[in-house]
């Protein structure tokens, strides 16, 4: 536990999630309930309770002005770098505070002793677009009026195509069935194995190689309640699983998280068929909004509409060439290295992860050369990931 005071009378105390008391938890829930931007499952204390036990360096900043709690910031430390708590497993993150708060995120980070902080899905109060953060928008499917109303707002051609593919899948491979429920341990392992295979196939960094990320999913599976927890969508044709996706639910919000599909069925668009079924059944179960994460990828536009702005970038908290609170945007490469930093709390693991990633990239782009890739990986890991 540590506490630092700001000149304006605001104090910041870093505590473990398990150290939050009854008053702090009540204040958290009241702030979250009053601010629609904090409706994501990743702001649910039940998620953070589990993640706080698993993620290395996890903590909560409790922010007070006098005796009043003004807000909270879930985070994890990587030397002088701060990331969202449980990064890269927290797709939405930010200050838990009132919508009209005067708290400034850079000031909070400075009082936490951070040299810099990286965010990839920053939403909520204490941030603004004008400071140089890159901006995207959350993509979300509105199911508040039911699935029929949702379908009426989608492209008729898109829906017709998916119905045709569904009929073809059933004709060629047997009766199609769908389930949307809490996952078994065996199905969780299957999802993790499928994602790891996909990471290898697409030459991406394997976020499950470090161990704790998979443990987090298994721990979440055991912490489910009626209105919170993991849900697994599974689309089958006959006895074969053609697509599946793990998601996280909190109240009437569901966040799509880890999808996999069998490439042998690619011609049927199994991922799209599964997503439509997920939305249909989610609406039947009282889900009002399904989150697809930020970005304008074509498949997201097929299913969802832009919602609130989502910020990403790096905040420098100390005077540098970029200024007092210099903020720079993230590139695709730096996002990959952010994942490595989040998964690997130590320098040795970061170097190993960075080298592995760049070596995989050199296989994908042979002109880079494995030797050059290794040197770049170590150099970038030292400069971007560690202090």
UniProtKB/TrEMBL annotation:
InterPro entries: Acyl_CoA_acyltransferase, BioF2-like_GNAT_dom. It comes from the Bacteria. Residues 160-301 form the BioF2-like acetyltransferase domain. Pfam families: Acetyltransf_6 (PF13480). SUPFAM superfamilies: Acyl-CoA N-acyltransferases (Nat) (SSF55729). This is Cellulose biosynthesis protein CelD. The lineage of its organism: Bacteria, Pseudomonadati, Pseudomonadota, Alphaproteobacteria, Caulobacterales.
């Amino acid at each position: 536990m540590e506490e630092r005071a700001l000149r304006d009378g605001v104090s910041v105390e870093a505590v473990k999630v398990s150290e939050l008391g009854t008053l702090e938890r009540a204040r958290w829930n009241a702030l979250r309930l009053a601010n629609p931007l904090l409706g994501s499952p990743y702001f649910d204390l039940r998620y953070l309770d589990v993640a706080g036990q698993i993620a290395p360096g996890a903590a909560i900043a409790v922010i007070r002005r006098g005796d009043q709690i003004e807000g909270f910031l879930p985070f994890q430390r990587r030397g002088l770098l701060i990331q969202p708590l449980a990064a890269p497993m927290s797709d939405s993150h930010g200050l838990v505070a009132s919508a009209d708060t005067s708290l400034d995120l850079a000031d909070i980070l400075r009082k936490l002793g951070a040299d810099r902080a990286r965010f990839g899905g920053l939403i909520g109060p204490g941030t603004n677009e004008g400071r140089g953060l890159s901006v995207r928008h959350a993509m979300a499917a509105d199911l508040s009026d039911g699935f029929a109303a949702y379908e009426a707002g989608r492209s008729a051609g898109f829906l017709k195509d998916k119905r045709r593919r569904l009929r073809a899948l059933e004709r060629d491979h047997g009766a199609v069935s769908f389930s949307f429920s809490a996952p078994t341990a065996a199905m969780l392992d299957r999802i993790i194995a499928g994602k790891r295979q996909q990471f290898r196939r697409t030459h991406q960094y394997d976020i499950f190689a470090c161990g704790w990320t998979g443990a987090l999913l298994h721990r979440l599976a055991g912490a489910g309640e009626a209105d919170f927890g993991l849900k697994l969508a599974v689309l089958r044709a006959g006895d074969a699983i053609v697509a599946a996706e793990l998601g996280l639910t909190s109240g009437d919000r569901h966040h799509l998280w880890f999808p996999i599909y069998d490439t042998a069925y690619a011609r049927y668009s199994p991922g799209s068929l599964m997503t439509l079924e997920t939305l249909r059944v989610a609406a039947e179960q009282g889900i009002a909004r399904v989150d697809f994460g930020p970005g304008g990828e074509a498949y997201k536009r097929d299913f969802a509409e832009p919602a609130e702005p989502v910020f990403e970038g790096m905040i420098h908290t100390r005077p540098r060439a970029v200024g007092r609170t210099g903020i720079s945007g993230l590139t695709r490469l730096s996002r990959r290295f952010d994942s490595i930093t989040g998964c690997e709390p130590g320098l040795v693991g970061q170097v190993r992860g960075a080298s592995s990633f760049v070596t995989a990239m050199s296989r994908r782009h042979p002109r880079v050369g494995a030797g050059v890739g290794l040197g770049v990986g170590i150099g970038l890991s030292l400069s971007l990931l560690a202090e």
